[in-house]
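Usage

Read records sequentially. Each one opens with the input sequence:
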Amino acid sequence: MEAVRLPGTDLDVSMLVLGGNMLGSRLDRDSSFAVLDAYAQAGGSMIDTAAVYADWLPDTEAGCSERTIGRWLRARPSSPMLVTTKGGHPDLSRPHQPRLDGPSLRHDVEQSLERMGLDRLALWFTHRDDPALSVQEIIESVEALRDEGLLRWYGVSNWSTSRVAQVLEMRSAGAAPGFVATQAAFAAAAPRPDGWAADLTAADGPMLDLHQASHLTLFAYSAQAKGWFDGAVGATDTYDTPANRHARDVVRSVAAEAGVEPGQVALAALLELDLPLRLVVGCSTPARLRQSAGALALRLTPEQSRRVQGVLPAVPGVRTASARP
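and closes with the structure output:
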């Protein structure tokens, strides 16, 4: 799992980023450490988490994902692992009250640093957007934290294409030099509109075109479509549509020909796109981690690639396959 320079930064980040939303909650300490160790052993270089993971679960330690990652980092002091986390999520007791004001962002950044035992965050994202605030106001608050040395680089998560474009305009004008990435859902299946929270954003054609044109990296979360291609029961509510069933049939057919798992084919197809991507994958066991990592070594034939890319959602302008780093 080779680490590749993240455009516009000094960070080397593997193509697969380990999603941390299960760490310390669905996965206990030992299970979390086993997955983290397996990811590190496979050459992974970045864990993605958030201040709010997984505070929605009852009887769970507040900030359990960040705290578990911090404990793992302290237990592995020689690890070069990078962590990206997110803040500014609404308080779960007041889900409709945004928290992207300067004091709230500062609180979350400082809290994340304390939980994980870090002096500075390598990469940090605003977890949600607040259209009531101007893009300039939010970005200036984040840049102030960067100027203080609390962040190296930053991005935005679940923002609209038009709002991301405004941040890029600020960066072009020299007002957002630390802005390097976004996060949105992107997989070989598109989420159902009625199966997706209103404050989450799935990458569509215009968003992907913007990332391609600007060389802005997209951290694609839910990159495995919650296991849709491998038949995970929990994926049905989010991904069960006629188009996605057809995509699953195509992916499974190609997987059978290649002698690999469908989920590996689905990830490999994303990696072939001419897009600046990092794929965020959540894995509940070391075996699942190794299976996901197997997508990096998978090379589809031109005919197989054509078939799979033909059913990918929202990529009409970016279907040119490119050599992977």
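Summary fields computed downstream for this record:
- The first helix runs from residue 29 to 41.
- The radius of gyration is 19 Å.
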